[in-house]
Every structure is written in structure tokens, then in C-alpha cells.
């Protein structure tokens, strides 16, 4: 019984660390890698944190801003938050890999 409780506690800790990383760092850092290639390490980390928070807030607004959005998406649940955050992260990862291996950069307005 204690062993099962310890495994559950470890699983919750891993989920909390992974959730914090996905909510506060990884998507924004990938976006910073794609869109702000000229930035150095610490600046990129700071921009990544800010962009991750913006992405998390945007996902939350899209999931449950009003009753229609809540009915369409199922609202803000842990599963939905993980799912949509992973989709955004996967999209940004594909963009980063594309720009890294092809040498192309995203277009800037007016260029």
C-alpha cells in the first residue's frame, strides 16, 4: 500500500514538473528560437518564458472564453490543456526544425 502511494506521489511530481515546463518554458522557447534567432542565451530564455505564458493564456481563452467555446472544446480540463499545449509545441518544433535544416527564416512584414 505504501509502495503504491509512493509511485502515485512520484507520478504527480513528474506531472507537475512537466506541466510547469510546458506552461512556462518549452513552447515559448521554441517560438523564440524560430522568431528571434539573433537573440543570445539569457535574452532568449526570458523571451521564451514570456511567450510561454502568453501561449498558455491564449490556449485558456480559446478553451473556455465563453459558453460556445466551452461546449465546442470541452472547456479547460487538464487533458485539454495538455493536448492543446502539446499541439502548439509540436507545431513550433516543426517550424524550428524546418528553419534550422533549410536555412529559411519566417517572413517579416514588408519584406
Report a brief summary of the structure.
This protein is about 80% helix and about 0% strand. With about 110 residues, the chain is mainly alpha-helical.
The topology string of helices and strands comes to: HHHHH
Helix content: over 70%
- How much of the sequence lies in strands comes to under 5%
Overall morphology:
globular
The tally of helices reads: 5
Largest sheet data? none
Given as residue ranges, the uncertain stretches (5+ residues, pLDDT < 50) are none
Number of E-type strands: 0
Structural Rg: 17 Å
What structural category do the secondary elements indicate? mainly alpha
Mean pLDDT: 83
Terminus-to-terminus distance: 64 Å
Element layout with pairings:
Blueprint: H1 2-24, H2 26-35, H3 41-64, H4 67-73, H5 78-102
Helix pairs in contact: 2-3, 2-5, 3-5
How would you characterize this protein structure?
- The protein is an all-alpha fold and about 110 residues long.
- Helix content is about 80%, strand content about 0%.
- It has 5 helices and no strands.
- The protein starts with a helix and ends in a 9-residue tail after the last helix.
What are the key terms here?
111 residues; single chain; globular; 80% helix; mainly alpha
Amino acid at each position: 500500500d505504501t509502495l503504491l502511494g509512493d509511485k502515485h506521489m512520484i507520478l504527480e511530481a513528474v506531472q507537475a514538473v512537466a506541466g510547469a515546463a510546458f506552461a512556462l518554458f518549452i513552447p515559448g522557447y521554441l517560438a523564440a528560437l524560430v522568431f528571434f534567432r539573433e537573440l543570445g542565451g539569457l535574452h532568449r530564455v526570458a523571451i521564451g518564458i514570456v511567450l510561454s505564458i502568453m501561449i498558455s493564456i491564449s490556449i485558456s481563452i480559446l478553451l473556455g472564453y465563453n459558453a460556445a467555446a466551452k461546449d465546442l472544446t470541452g472547456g479547460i480540463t487538464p487533458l485539454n490543456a495538455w493536448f492543446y499545449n502539446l499541439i502548439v509545441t509540436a507545431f513550433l518544433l516543426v517550424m524550428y526544425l524546418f528553419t534550422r535544416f533549410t536555412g529559411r527564416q519566417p517572413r517579416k512584414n514588408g519584406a
